[in-house]
Design a protein that fits this description.
Helices cover 52% and strands 12% of the residues. By secondary structure, it is an alpha/beta fold. The structure holds a DNA duplex.
Length: 649
Amino acid sequence: MAVSSGLTNFAQALNAEQLAAVTAPDGPLFVLAAAGTGKTRTLVYRVAYLVQQGVDARRILLLTFTNRAAREMLARAQILVGEQVGGLWGGTFHHLANRMLRRYAPLLNFGADFTILDHDDSISLIKDLITELKLGGKQFPKAEVLLSLLSGAVNRRQALDAAVQRYFEKHPIDPEDALRVFARYQQKKRAQNAMDFDDLIINGLQLLKEHPGVLAHYQEQFRYVLVDEYQDTNPIQADWVDLLAQRHRNLLVVGDDFQSIYAWRGADYRNIMTFPQRYADTRIFKLETNYRSTPEILAVANRCIAGNPHQFQKVLRATRPAHHKPVLVSVADGAHQARYVIGQLVYLRNAGRAWRDMVVLYRAHYHALELQMELTRARIPFTVVSGVRFFEQAHVKDVLSLLRILHNPGDELAFARFLSLLPGVSSRTAAKVWRSLGGRWTAGNAKARSAVAGLLPKAARAVWQTLLPIFETYESLLRKEPAEIIAQFSKIFYDEYLLDTFDDYERRQEDLAEVMEFMAGFASTDDFLNEVALVTNLDAEGDRLAGNAQDSLRLSTVHQAKGLEWNVVFVLWLADGLFPSSRAMLESGEDAEERRLFYVAVTRAKDELFLCAPAMRRALNGGIQFLEPSRFVKELPPDCLRQEKTDFL
DNA sequence: ATAGGCTCTGTTTTT
DNA sequence: CAGAGCCTAT
């Protein structure tokens, strides 16, 4: 139900800085929002404000960093002004691109039912191509390397041949070979009617640039464009935004250059730095009043970021009363660190904190393995915001491959994956079958079904026959009850396959139950398949965590903690080389982004912050490596922190 | 096609 | 040291 109480409502809920931004008149707006200053709140209220002013929600575009963020903001805006917010377009760039391309892909000579290749799919495709082009061999770069090279060039809008030249300077192989792989990769994707993550963005932009009618349509539709986390957009995404907002120029970007942590993925903080120049009539709003953290935590945050080059000057102003200083914990090694953290967790929990009020953050997933074991032993419930994405796990992809071949008869990757599940069928056999079928297979066609049977080795053929009931009946199920297809498949074949193949068979089965549940949230199987590649852990995680609000400790990388907050924050492995990561510094030649990452970690904390600095770790070869405390800790004035030197147990 | 042994490599962040 | 990926023998 709509609440119509005019502006007073907003004035009560917002501070002066926020209110000014929320109620600003039309035109380009730039909200520079430091951590914990109510950035999300401002966006939510802006949406609510617009709707209350009579703007049709369908004419508002809200671009966010995760789909979950969009959903959350939408839900919050709905509480403010009611159902009318429902028609708003919200989500990630990939999500928006997908939505546009589903409609207009034919203009780019793709079918509208194109498949989205996730990271794994892209890798296996490139692997196949390396083999096909006979380029294997141990000095030839791995598919992983090639893909990240390609993606890096694409997202930074660098010429591919130059990027390849540069990369292979130190390699004894011919850069032309890499370019051949890339060329073939593009061809293959087209032939399979497939796009990878980067293609979505690139093709989406191409669609707008080359088809004035389409561009005009969306420019007209989106009277208001709001962009969250603008500091993490890459040049292509920035173009998207500029193009879409060109007509109405009601563009609101929100961000914080201090929190730009995706340069490695092509994000360019210059987008945010130069925004006021690119839009000369921009109104600038600075949010600096922090409601989240204690003054002691903010002091650390302000100090750590102060020396970073090229940034908008801003200082977090505290509103909360003094509490105690963040703790710098010197520990001997990983084991000691785990024991210390667990000791503190238990203490804080006994003092009244819930597990969910606390988080352990780290630079890289493997930094937390040791702690995970100790937490298990201590019977502390925890949830890892995992490195392996839920929908990229082998068993999930196996099952989805069935839906994919039923849905898209040209989906070679899915077909090969599915067939390889059968006994005695490897990727080679699968490829051969696919070729004999002429690169297309329709499950609903009886001839096609027996053609496959004829091409399979004996053992596989027997299993294939047992699967026929699924292929004979899927068509109505696909529309009405796609989960039932998975259930049948499990019963006939896949349960047993799981049991034979994996030792953690039960967990995987539970995952599949979750997949079925998740599917129920989509209007159709098409929608589900068309978007599942874009669903991130966090998207799914948020739902799951919200659903059964079990109380558990969260473990997360700093990257995945972006935008979130906890009462108590532990940061692990603050040692030079680990955090900041030496690899990252080697790649970029500087430590500015790592420092921003540290800043993000620090500013997640509301009440208490523990910075753990181990003195040594097990080295790569089994020996011991001594560590220097992280430069980010050493740079801080000593009186910012309470030093805790624990006994080396 | 697959199992098992051997060698090499080397721990980043993710839409 | 561990895990991945390659090679070889069946």
